[in-house]
Amino acid sequence: MMKRFALTGLAAGIALATLAGSAQAQEKWTMTTTWPDNLDLIQIDRHWVELVNQLTGDELQIDFRAGGTLMPGTEVFDATETGSIQAAGDWPGYWAGRSPAFSPLATTTSLFNGVDYLNWIQQWGGFELYQEVYGQYNMVYLPYGITNNESGFRGGTPIESLADLEGKRLRLSGRDQGRVLEQLGGSQVTLAGGEIYQAIERGVVDGAEFSTPGVDYKAGFSEVADYWLTPGWHQSASVFGVMINQDAWDALSEETQEKLRIAADATMAWSLAWSERQSTEGTVKFLEDGTEISHLSEDDLAEIQRITNEVIVQGACEDPMHAKVYHSMVSYLEHYANWRDISVPFNMSRVTDNLPSLEEIEACME
What we know:
The chain has 366 residues and is α/β, with parallel strands linked by helices. It has helices spanning 2-25, 42-56, 76-82, 102-106, 114-123, 126-135, 175-183, 196-201, 213-218, 246-250, 254-288, 298-318, 320-340, 358-365, and strands at 27-33, 60-64, 87-90, 139-150, 153-155, 169-171, 187-189, 207-208, 227-230, 232-245, 292-295.
């Protein structure tokens, strides 16, 4: 009897030691984002963090801090790369100065819509390209947010056609977007999201774009911009995600890593539906506030597409990684067109008949 008690006590001691070891082994991450609390895009980051904390339990807990509370949003890339923090939510286009390949990983001019990004990331090789680009900076990347095309330009004076862009100073994100705008006669002004409201109000810019209608409305733009030019050709869709320090990622078990990827996929699907609902409600509110909406003509949109195709090839010839990403994107569009084009108008309403030249991009890659 005493022997059984001793063995039972020994087993209990081993179990307690194991539990204590597990508790000590729990990973704790600090994560921030590029978005402050007053910009609704932070909801995408929070959604992923909450899912991860629920799924991983004792394996990993993430302490999430709003953008600007730990460091300026411009510093989160370096902080994650060096391991000062374990993770940070971002929009890849902010890092295009480091590599132009970040630009199409974030958005495209007049090319992908939200479902295109979803398809490409999950089934046509896009996910691996995010790893290749961010991997050069000691990071793993999990795309976890997609929004459809952005609102367009807002301002205090009407812009109703491409002709009205001549000489206009417009807040616009993205290297390729700026090149297209320049050929259309406008000039690109770079401003942080939190600076746009005052820039419109004070006339520092003639117009500005930022995000989807729901995000724009909550940022207060209806108070300073009476005019709205659609569609948002400059960002036909956008991707958001989390940068994870490579060493922090490697410290996780394969099972925990898989849970983070599952949370990213779930958040990606949620974000697309969430943003479309927010866009719808935001549009209604802008109209109720008296915002006047103009829509570019088919001829204007065709001209934007022509210039966009040239700019994409130009960028591809300047940087091999930029070329590799766009080659993958255009290859996807051409392949998908076999089904997409015969199912119009029920398959996202785009006929793929005017794309950047895949042959010219390939020539730049040789």
